[in-house]
């Protein structure tokens, strides 16, 4: 397809920030490869686990952090607008007449600009795995009809969506469009490239495969293509009597015990809907999570990748061909030939003494090198390397190669590689961490024992403590990462839905975190290193693929697997048993019971002068509107009923120093929206009367007060001391005293409930 907006090469325009980023990173290392560690601000990269100076926060990153939430809602701070761009099953079309439907469990996404069109572009999205329960209700491979198997087969792969901002500033799908496309689990026939693309010597791999599946995250290239990563390929062709998929009933090639057709990195040109996707065997076959590149003009191209398996490794590919800006046909062959390497760390896993701990018992920095992966190890990369390194030295895999499960890998503008190690229960790492890796001489092509890289754990997950503000308690189980143009690091979390607070398997170390979320970590300034909570995900979902538009006014986020635990607890067809109603409804408030649907959300930063009506919704779904001219009505069925109020986690004893710093934390659960008033008071000796008649008497003194509008569900909050309350507590000088916390909740109809708790201040 030819179109004037199709780039001849990705470095063509300044709007294409992410392509420019790769080249800029390369530029730094070409010019200053040897001296980079001496450059100001860079020498402490490895000495300081907090942050280095970068730019000021961007307008997008200037927000008031939201508190953790367990509500079945997508929530962003005030001043941002969130809306669903497309959801599972929605139709769109190509101009050639092909009717298309958006797939299930959208994961990776990337925005490809169209030159000269600032408010228009292409979204490349992939669809990781189907959900048989929600799609048709049959959850055993052997029991499905062919039509049910084909519905699942169609729902994975990739979508290319032409999107454009409308007059109201909302991103909409342009349909029909010559760009719109679906790649499914069956179509088109993908072409294999590289050393194993051969029917004679590698018949299990062969030269082609039907479509693409298990697409988790991905990446982009500087020549304007998308890379989609096939992750859990082993799930689709196992025994249909015991597996949820059983696709080998459709075709034996899905069976990974017999064939090696899936588990590759797949390259697609989003600008050409007729392009044949290419699976690159030179990049190895493992549970590919994503890719991140470093491209130097005229030099060999480097692609970093993670193997998303507990105790698996981090890889990089170094191409044989150089990257030559402007020569797209040449660059499109870069991933066909080169050498793959696996990272060997002096100590690869971050280990803890106790589950949920935040201070590791193993080193938090060290060195390592890149070990070559042989062509004979490419087909089943993890298994074969493991066998080889263990044959050389018993225990070598776990000491040097096994990691705490690499999810995203991203490259900063200075060439530093950031790796999200999500968690690893085997070494009691429940919260994960982000590790930085700096190549020897900052040369991305550096390999072998003589060229050691250096690594340091940059940010660890886990609870920072109840004395911290509600939006700053910390992340857990980091997954995808993205930098904004000022260098702030955005992190999404992926606590497995079965361990999240509110599910039967809830783990106590994730309680503080509640639902999965999006965080922003400034890397400079007074807040450097602190994770600020930006968005809350709906019940049992994870946010994936965060991606900014070039102008950074919009952040796109995929909401994957809302209500995932329903499959083990719900009754198909009875939506009241589903654990999420998102995005059309909200299970927590009982609003609009409906089937949960994975969806792509756009979050837009509004200008400060945006009129109030445009400032909403910052929550999906928006609460039902109050009838005009009348005061808000109580929810149906709640008339006359008092709000049910449950208080948890009020400490029985609170150190006065802690109270002064962080106030009194607690957790409130209400069954309907309320206005809550919380008052902390104590009887304290107080001077009553004047002059000679002044006497000390025990008098009730208010130490702190908070008033908050709460949605139905659980909320964590803290009652902070007032300035006068602080003076009174300081005057106690460690003398024990009992304070009383009174909580009153009032619903929209005016019904009230209240509870009291005593707290010993010591
Ligand atoms: Fe699909 Fe690697 O998470
Ligand atoms: Ca992921
Ligand atoms: Ca994940």
TrEMBL record:
Q: Where does this protein have coiled-coil stretches?
A: none
Gene3D superfamilies xrefs = TolB, C-terminal domain
Q: What Pfam families does the annotation carry?
A: PhoX
Region (Disordered) residue ranges read 583-648
Basic and acidic residues compositional bias, start-end:
628-648
From which domain of life does this come?
Bacteria
Provide the protein name: DUF839 domain-containing protein
